């Protein structure tokens, strides 16, 4: 069967290639590894450029099965020019099942360290940043797009390109528009925290950024709250004098104190650290989200907060 698959892909007509690609997806992992040694990636990529959506979908599935679990095949596929073809598919394809397959394929390819620089050297990052905020994209496709950006941003030299492509703004938009307790919010906040860790100034100047993060602390899942606290801790540590007042004015204290008590282990630690950075901010005005009025923090309240922080730290 392996020999028939190889022969059909290399020398068969398009109908035979389609049948072989379907059969390839059904082979065992060991069998797929063996046939990958026979230069079958090129005909599969040729099928990927077909004007027929069924052929494109079948070739995507076959390539995805080759890449799954094989670092060698991931490198081979990228070297053969797959990323540019996937970029073109994502720019022009309207059939959502193909878009989802392409996003999943990119996620797998980007998990290989040897591929990251090559992938980042294309226009793919800019395209993914635009796609994750697209209303018509499915949640799974958005998750895969965010995960791909996360894979790429683990290389520090790629982070500036991710920032320059507008990822911080796009991720804040995702967090703001989706259910704060959803997996999508968690993944978006996780990537944003990673970006802020390397580039703490990246959300400076984005209108409403602090407000979105404070809402995530109030309404998010445990993981989302943890990441939101981590982001605020990063920006406050980077420029305390500028950012601590803005953070307090958005009414962060109730949610932050709550996380410091019953958040995740990491969330508690970061919440307490952020509270220590914020505690000297006497005289700042915060917003009451219920009544839409502003409240000035009196010195006695700040002393109370300091006492609470002291108890939490012991």
From TrEMBL:
Keywords: Repeat, Ubl conjugation pathway. SMART domains: ARM (SM00185). The keyword Transmembrane helix does not apply. Residues 126-281 form the U-box domain. It holds the Pfam family ARM_PUB. InterPro entries: ARM-like (IPR011989), ARM-type_fold (IPR016024), ARM_PUB (IPR058678), Armadillo (IPR000225). This is U-box domain-containing protein. It comes from Brassica carinata.
